[in-house]
Design a protein that fits this description.
Blueprint lengths: L1 H10 L21 H17 L11 H8 L4 H10 L4 H22 L4 E6 L5 E7 L2 E8 L10 H21 L1 H4 L10
Helix pairs in contact: 2-3, 2-5, 2-6, 5-6
Length: 186
Amino acid sequence: MDQMANEVACANEQPADKAQVRPKRRSKPAPDPEKAERIVRRLNDLLSASDYFGRYASLTPEEKIAKLFLASAEDKAKSDINCTASDEVRRQVPVLFQAIASLMEEKSGLMIQSSAEINVEGFGRGLIYSGRIILVMKSLRAGFPFPFTSLEKTVAYAVACLDEGIAFLDKYKEQTAVHGLLSLEG
């Protein structure tokens, strides 16, 4: 066995003890804590607005998001196996894009809207736009990256979308300054 490992190592021009070293996965940087807190707050506000009878009013924002928004591991496994979007996924998509759009609106001062749709097979899209300008467009295939099962992944995805949309607004602000975002002539 040891002789075989040495032969493989010689073929790869590496020492035998380092032949099985795998490259490390790149970890994404943590999202900005202020933006993460704002996403959690906005998701909590949206979920509270849909809690008509106040059943979950006593929960903390994180508990409310876990109870009303995040999917369970079983739902995620079920979605992965049969490649269809579960009810949890179909509920998560519009709420998350609405939260992102409202934060972009708060930051930019412009009227920002969202539109999200996903069919039973898991195909769809999420749009965040202002007038005729599409700021963020995410395609959903087999529901991916939904369903979110952890708050950290949800916040990271939302902050990435928020940053993408704000960067797009900043980049094209000069081009849209003449007519404004809401009155671009085609």
